[in-house]
Amino acid sequence: MPKSRQKVPGLPARRAALKLLDAVLRRGETLEQAEAAAMTGVQGPADRALARAIAGETLRWLADLDALIDSATKKRLPDDAKPRTVLRLMLAQALRLGTPPHAVVATGLDLLSGGPRRLAHGVFSALMKREVNLPEIPMLSGAVLGRWGERAQTIAPGLIDPPEVDLALKDPSETQQRALDMGGVSLAPGHIRLPRGTPINMLPSYEEGAWWVQDLAAQLPARLLGAGDGRRVLDLCAAPGGKTLALASAGWRVTALDISEKRLELLRGNLKRTGLEAEIVKADALAYTPAKQFDAILLDAPCTATGTCRRHPDVLHRVGPRQIGEMTEIQQSLIHRAVEWMGTGTQLIYAVCSLEPEEGEAQAAWIEENFELERQPIGSCELPMGIEPTTEGWLRTHPGMLANDGGLDGFFIARWQKR
């Protein structure tokens, strides 16, 4: 349990956390989708942040919290029973956020009434008297373990805490000095890692546009295309723009395509702040026909995003076979289109921020079975220290990698060239 203790602001943040959990676990929404409705009545950024933290830590440690609850009840509470959900968030506060038990009781029990209230009070009090603790590493659900197999044991250590803040620099030669100025560390040229909670818009050189926020793993697809030297690249599914910025700063002439006008507005804002240039195209990639030839295509395809589970723990509980199947179909449709636009010598980078083999390794194998593309193996020399390619020459990252340095998101990346 962390040594630091937080002041308990009251019920609104707890009610919001309960609504967030309900939206994820019962309706399959993302935390982001649920936030607007859940935060009604929550005043101030501190309370909003607290609600997000309670919900996030509950989802991160859900299996372990349930095991504790089950150890203190004679009859197992249904998964969707409100007393179970309230107990989950009460225990998450006490065991992860360092909230004093009396403060947890004072706010948590008001979310229930009658018999459920007495039940929750009794279970929570019994667990506190036993001085229970959570394990060092979160336990993943049976469904996730079934999908990830042996890899789950190496992934889980990366899920203990929310991630720190990663920056990508416009000019990699400034890495050492900017890391010193910001009080951060660098795991690769052009990368800086800062403590979580760092106020982004208050950092030195924010207005200058010398960098943008982007997880280290998410920086790798664009890096693997190397220097542009004025060549043309199509960034498919480009918004909100981290890959576009990286490619433009590396000397590529970028066409950034995305279907979402709202997300493209974020891209335009990022381009303006950084002073970088790209041609922006709002279109459905499945209906788009490029007017020019590209030297490279970067397809960071829509996916289940399970690789972002350390920052978005809701994906651990709302993604299953149906969502994976839907995404693999979309990915294959996009791959078909991208390959149609490739001329001799054109490079293709396929990437997904997913830990699901169906979206990564299986798609790479499908590409090689169906298209005449020459695999371009990714080399160790192209990657940050501590990250190695697979024996196939593909790249698979996951949250347990570089765990001592803060970890990174889960990505699958592969590279080919048209013969």
What secondary-structure arrangement, pairings included, does this model have?
Blueprint: H1 11-27, H2 31-38, H3 45-60, H4 62-71, H5 82-95, H6 101-108, H7 114-129, H8 142-148, H9 151-155, E1 165-169, H10 175-182, E2 191-194, E3 211-213, H11 216-223, E4 232-236, H12 242-249, E5 253-258, H13 261-274, E6 279-282, E7 296-300, H14 315-318, H15 321-340, E8 347-352, H16 361-370, E9 373-375, E10 395-397, E11 411-418
Parallel strand pairs: 4-5, 4-7, 5-6, 7-8
Antiparallel strand pairs: 1-2, 1-3, 8-11, 9-11, 10-11
Helix pairs in contact: 1-2, 1-3, 3-5, 4-5, 5-6, 5-7, 11-12
Tags for this entry?
12% strand; single chain; Rossmann fold; Alpha-Beta Plaits; alpha/beta; 419 residues; 3 domains; N-utilizing Substance Protein B Homolog, Chain A; 41% helix; 8-stranded mixed sheet; 3-stranded antiparallel sheet; 16 helices; 11 strands
Can you describe what's shown?
This protein is an alpha/beta fold and 419 residues long. The protein has 3 domains: 11-129, Orthogonal Bundle (N-utilizing Substance Protein B Homolog, Chain A); 164-214, Alpha-Beta Plaits; 217-418, Vaccinia Virus protein VP39 (Rossmann fold). The protein is 41% helix and 12% strand. It has 16 helices and 11 strands. The strands form 2 sheets. Strands 4, 5, 6, 7, 8, 9, 10 and 11 form an 8-stranded mixed beta sheet that branches. It has a 3-stranded antiparallel beta sheet with strand order 2-1-3, sandwiched between helices. The chain is globular, with a radius of gyration of 23 Å. Mean pLDDT is 94; it is low at 1-8.
